[in-house]
Design goal:
The complex is a heterodimer of chains A (388) and B (257).
Chain A: E1 7-10, H1 12-24, E2 28-35, E3 38-43, E4 54-59, E5 62-67, H2 84-87, E6 91-99, E7 105-109, E8 117-122, H3 124-138, H4 145-152, E9 155-159, E10 185-192, E11 195-202, H5 205-212, H6 221-235, H7 247-253, H8 259-266, H9 272-276, E12 283-289, E13 295-302, E14 312-313, E15 316-317, H10 322-341, H11 351-354, H12 362-386
Parallel strand pairs in A: 2-8, 8-9, 9-10
Antiparallel strand pairs in A: 1-11, 2-3, 4-5, 6-7, 6-13, 10-11, 12-13, 14-15
Helix pairs in contact in A: 7-10, 7-12, 8-10
Chain B: E1 6-11, H1 17-23, H2 26-35, E2 37-41, E3 53-59, H3 65-76, E4 78-84, H4 85-90, H5 102-109, E5 133-135, H6 142-154, H7 166-171, H8 177-181, H9 197-200, H10 217-226, H11 231-238, H12 243-256
The chains are: A alpha+beta (388), B alpha/beta (257).
Chain lengths: 388, 257
């Protein structure tokens, strides 16, 4: 038996066959699809549900769907959801308890059948975001069993970026538009004189097995180099960039910066940035009872550092001001995340920039903090020169 | 087992919609009736038991001297007092009078102005007496009402978050109507509780649940302007069911900055 090749080329029918193979395996296939004027993530029954012919125009606080003449399916930027909506759902029951007739309590942990997911069209930034959440929820000190189970069973098909958006800055976060690791299959969409096709790379044994069941053709060197060229070109077209400084140190040195007041005046503290962020993982737990008091449940749901109750201790919230809450979000994301989880919490997907109603841009905030710090250090140097 | 706690429902200046929510709890109504003794609830029964009451739900705002007096009596008769709805928690839509000349209304609208005994303002119950919990909404949410009653019975804090509508809106996967459609929406400054219904149907939030605890209205107003509301339309957008509360939230934030 010869090993299946590590690459292939699929046409649109091949992509549909890929969805069919995954569904036949009993997987819930989730992919991008158009709903309510945006590309959202939802279960898809066939590749026809993908956003063929739709692109996006984004800016800070603005998102618009725009038609494309080339019929491309993966030429859009990140929408309002990320894959955490499936791996780390917004609300989950952890256990329920009942008071039995004899007065004793019986507690039952929630053990539902977890869906076996296949994610189609995971951006390289989102592959990195999933890896970040893995470190937090699947392999860290405080593991989330539901997340672990859903994650272990998930089949990831990356879609490399050839059309980065105006709010994208993954390159400046050490990433890029190419899928490097953490996928089962990686697609690169090509629309040129040779036709509309998807160059596929195998990233795992599971990926190789799935691909072997899909009618495709061997990838010639032309297709492979065209795919590489398209992704390399995308590298140079990021709409934004983080300032090229050590963000971890910058945040640590900026805790008393005036800029926090400036951003707090603009910040709605509405929590949108944390909800759309593919790495924000915070949850709260709520106990509920029924009217009789004989039945109780514990639920876990997404929470946010922008919620006053998030830092509520006896007597009130620790982070009462908008300044302290925005600062918590940014310094955790870019700095203290390293201390906790060994990496940055930001992958540069740009969602928080696009989906902030007032368009607060974390690359701009970081740059402003850097400028303020540089000016402060300059003044300090000048003072020291004057008064040695 | 001790006697069931008594429940009373009272109404001031209001439309009755919030107390009707209690009757809308169809599936839970029999359980509720078995758990509490409904002692005073005129919309449901004319049989009234005298106070004091363990849990009083008060709907409506204070708009007359008589109601200002009555709300003190209700407080005195209530161990735990919960105000329900935008009228009781913020003065309601009738708080529009707070921005106008009530004397002029009285002269213009009524044939016999001397029959009208009214206050110049519509105020929330909390402006008159101590309130143990305020349940927002126009109308209130059925699930939240049950949660408040259930929490009272269990002696725990109700799970009624005071963050923005954006939280449940994003959690339910709605596409942001402001960012993606340019629709004016009060969601970022409004307290959650309705389940983010309006944006799920492509409309902007109308602010039925009043300002969220950390509402930053001055930051939102430029967006409303950008999305087509002029100064007058912006003012009208903010002056609906929670008119007085949004005005206060806006003024206090402007003062800060």
């Amino acid at each position: 038996m010869t090993a299946a090749p590590a690459t292939a080329v699929l046409d649109r029918d091949g992509l549909d066959a890929l969805v069919g193979v995954l569904r036949a395996q009993g997987r819930t296939v989730v992919g991008p699809t158009v709903r309510d004027g945006a590309v959202v993530l939802a279960e898809i029954a066939s590749a026809d549900a993908l956003p063929f012919g739709w692109g996006t125009e984004v800016e800070a606080g603005r998102y618009r769907l725009v038609p494309r003449t080339d019929g491309a399916a993966f030429a859009h930027t990140t929408g309002p959801q990320s894959w955490k909506a499936f791996l780390h759902p917004e609300r989950e029951r952890l256990w329920s308890a009942d008071r039995r007739a004899d007065g004793r309590l019986s507690v039952a942990a929630e053990r539902p059948q977890r869906p076996s997911y296949a994610f189609l069209g995971v951006r390289p930034c989102d592959l990195r975001a999933i890896a970040v959440q893995d470190r937090v929820l699947a392999t860290g000190r405080h593991r989330d069993r539901g997340y672990q189970e859903r994650r272990t069973g998930a089949f990831l098909i990356a879609a490399e970026c050839t059309e980065p958006g105006a709010t994208c800055f993954c390159v400046s976060m050490g990433g890029g538009p190419a899928a490097e690791a953490g996928y089962d299959l990686a697609l690169t969409e090509l629309v040129d004189e040779t036709g509309h096709r998807f160059f596929v790379r195998v990233g795992s044994d599971a990926g190789r097995e799935v691909l072997s069941g899909v009618p495709g053709r061997p990838a010639g060197p032309g297709t492979e180099s065209a795919a590489r060229a398209a992704v390399d070109a995308a590298r140079e077209r990021m709409g934004r960039a983080m300032p090229p400084v050590d963000l971890r140190t910058l945040m640590g040195d900026s805790l008393e910066a005036d800029r926090w007041d400036d951003v707090a005046a603009r910040c709605l503290t509405c929590g949108n940035c944390t909800m759309v962020c593919p790495t924000c993982f915070c949850t709260t737990t709520e106990e509920v009872t029924d009217l009789t008091g004989d039945h109780a449940e514990r639920w876990q749901r997404w929470d946010s550092c922008f919620d006053l109750d998030f830092s509520y201790l006896h007597g009130g919230p620790v982070r009462a001001s908008a300044r302290s809450r925005y600062r918590q979000w940014l310094t955790h994301k870019l700095s203290t995340w390293y201390d906790q989880f060994g990496s940055s919490g930001c992958v540069g997907c740009g969602r928080c920039v696009t989906w902030c109603p007032v368009g607060i841009d974390i690359t701009e905030e970081a740059a402003a903090l850097h400028d303020e710090l540089a000016a402060r250090l300059r003044r300090q140097d000048e003072r020291e020169e004057r008064e040695p | 087992m001790s006697e069931a706690p008594t429940l009373a429902v009272f109404k001031l200046a209001s439309c009755d919609g919030c107390q009707l929510t209690l009757l809308d709890c169809e599936d839970e109504l029999l359980t509720l009736a078995g758990t509490v003794r409904i002692a005073h609830f005129l919309e449901a029964s004319s049989a009234v038991a005298p106070g004091p009451y363990d849990l009083s739900l008060v709907e409506g705002s204070v708009t007359t001297p008589a109601d200002a007096e009555r709300v003190r009596e209700i407080r005195a008769q209530s161990r735990f007092l919960v105000t329900i709805g935008a009228c009781a928690t913020a003065g309601g839509i009738q708080a529009l009078r707070n921005f106008a000349d009530v004397e002029e209304f009285r002269r213009t609208v009524y044939a016999r102005p001397d029959h009208i005994d009214t206050l110049a303002t519509s105020t929330p119950v909390s402006a008159h007496v101590t309130v143990d919990f305020e349940l927002r909404g126009c109308p209130i949410d059925r699930g939240q009402l049950l949660e408040v009653i259930t929490a009272f019975l269990a002696g725990r804090k109700p799970d009624v978050p005071d963050h923005s509508v954006c939280f449940p809106c994003k959690r339910r996967g709605t596409v942001c109507v402001t960012v993606a459609h340019g629709t004016p929406c009060l969601g970022p400054v409004t307290q959650a509780g309705c389940g983010a219904v309006c944006p799920a149907y492509g409309r902007g939030c109308y602010g039925c649940f009043g300002p969220s605890r950390s509402a930053n209205l001055p930051a939102l107003i430029p967006l409303l302007r950008r999305d087509g509301l002029d100064e007058r339309a912006t003012e009208r957008f903010l002056r609906t069911f929670n008119a007085a509360a949004f005005a206060t939230a806006r003024a206090s934030r402007e003062e800060e900055t």
